[in-house]
Write a structure and sequence with these properties.
It is found in: Cell inner membrane; Cell membrane. Belongs to the ABC-2 integral membrane protein family. Its main location: membrane. By secondary structure, this protein is an all-alpha fold. The model has no long low-confidence stretch (mean pLDDT 81). Helices cover 71% and strands 0% of the residues.
Length: 302
């Protein structure tokens, strides 16, 4: 008597093709790995450091004091902008977040080359983890800003919180889209890191942090008004103005008409928000395409 056995057959669709994924959408299926990468990044940041997390407060504090002394005292900006320290710091935290995030995301694949070469996992996990780690390091600066604003009469409202969340909702995907491009290119051409350093330098001065948008508008008004439109459509600039409205605006005296005029949004700011969102979405899509194109050779290039 013979016994015949049948081997079950599985459809090809039941298996995942190595190296083939859905890009950023795969992040949601690998939340545990993302959590591990974020924990690794934050724990290594200040390992063997005496001050530890205090450096998250010390560095931006020194930077703020330096800018406040030079721009506020030496150049007299405190005479033109009421509560200039809060104006400066509320914009500076956005620029600091952008600068740290773009640097972290650009280096994320190269810094994790041991993992990239040995095992396959969605490569987008690394830049996303780097972005979230930068956000974690941003929180101490935000906490200092909130405390200072509260001591100056700031009261949180739904409008203020909405402005803050709107600013973060624009700048975070913008950094991710830009970072995906430089992150991918940096694996093959390390010159990308030098380009990013130039972008970080420009970012410090390309948004109304140490000056006001009115100064730019005054010089760009007329035949050069299109330059102001481009300037204000920058997602980082949009986020900075939203932060100003959320934290600096409420502490400005309501009986000071000149000061209230400075608090007002630029003309057509609603359109600038729309343009900023469009730029962010396009950059995120382009960044994903570039990243997917270059990731095929990550292991070899590393």
């Amino acid at each position: 008597m013979s016994v015949t056995t049948t081997t079950p057959t599985l459809a090809k669709s039941a298996f995942d093709t190595p190296g083939k994924g859905r890009g950023l959408l795969d992040i949601f299926n690998h939340r545990y790995l993302l959590k591990l990468l974020i924990g690794k990044s934050t724990s290594l940041r200040y390992r063997n450091s005496v001050m530890g997390w205090l450096w998250s407060y010390a560095r931006p504090t020194v930077q703020f004091l330096l800018y406040w002394f030079v721009m506020g005292q030496l150049l007299g900006m405190h005479k033109n902008v009421p509560y200039f320290p809060i104006y400066l710091f509320s914009g500076l935290v956005v620029v600091n977040f952008f600068n740290e995030a773009i640097g972290n995301v650009t280096r994320s694949i190269v810094d994790n080359k041991a993992l990239v070469r040995k095992i396959y996992l969605p490569r987008e996990l690394f830049p996303v983890a780097a972005l979230i780690s930068a956000f974690v390091n941003f929180l101490p600066q935000l906490a200092v800003l909130v405390v200072v604003c509260i001591f100056n009469g700031w009261v949180p409202t739904f409008e203020n919180i909405g402005m803050f969340l709107g600013g973060m909702a624009i700048v975070m995907p913008f950094v991710l889209g830009l970072g995906l491009i430089f992150c991918a290119v940096n694996v093959r051409f390390r010159d990308a890191q030098n380009v990013v350093e130039i972008i970080r330098t420009i970012a410090t001065w390309s948004s109304p942090v140490m000056y006001t948008w009115q100064m730019v508008y005054k010089h760009a008004h007329g035949w050069h008004s299109w330059l102001f439109d481009i300037y204000m459509s920058n997602p980082v600039t949009v986020a900075v103005e939203l932060f100003h409205k959320a934290f600096w605006g409420p502490v400005v005296p309501k009986d000071d008409l000149k000061a209230l005029a400075q608090v007002a949004f630029p003309p057509h700011f609603g359109l600038y928000i729309v343009f900023g969102v469009i730029v962010t979405i396009l950059l995120l899509l382009i960044g994903q395409m570039v990243f997917r194109r270059f990731e095929r050779t990550f292991a070899q290039d590393l």
